[in-house]
Structure formats: C-alpha cells, structure tokens
Specification:
The chain contains two helices and four strands, in the order αββββα. The chain is an alpha+beta fold. The chain has a domain of 26 residues.
C-alpha cells in the first residue's frame, strides 16, 4: 500500500487510518490500539523458524579446530546452557 509522504513521515499519520467495524462503520485505528516511539531491531536472523545469532571466532596459532569445538562444548555444559538453546557449527 502506498500513501502520500505526509502520512508516513511520522507516526501521527496513523491517526488517519480506519478499519471497518462489525456493523460496517469506519473505526479509527487509535480507538483500540496505541503506539509510541521506541527502538527495536532492524533485522532478526533466523535459522529455520527460530531466531538465531552468529558468533565468530578465530583459532590461536597451532590450535586445531576440533580442540576449539571441544572447548566450546565444555563451556556450554559448564555454564548450564538451557535445553531450549541449541548450538551448532557451520
């Protein structure tokens, strides 16, 4: 949907949005919602349907990747990572 710039350049434009009520009457969106300025993420990464985060690391000179994987998995156990959090290597 596209509207004139004066309606999307600030949140006050939402005062001019209406929806059809059960009896066909136009009801202002502000009658049953509220909005306020706040901050939020511009993007949320996902792996499948779940939110995800990517953590990168470098290996110290002479350290094998398998040793790093073992250390990370040990740290997961040590800190008591909840069962709802799943780690993996890509």
């Amino acid at each position: 949907m596209e509207v004139e710039p004066r309606f999307w350049q600030n949140p006050d434009g939402l005062q001019h949005l209406y929806v059809r009520g059960t009896n066909g009457v136009q009801v202002p969106l502000s009658a049953f919602t509220r909005y306020e300025p706040s901050t939020g993420a511009l993007a949320v990464n996902h792996q499948g349907q779940f939110p995800s985060v990517t953590i990168s690391f470098n290996l110290a000179s002479g350290v094998a990747l398998s040793d790093a994987v073992t250390a990370i998995e040990s740290a997961e156990q040590e800190i008591g990572l909840p069962a709802s959090i799943h780690g993996g290597f890509m």
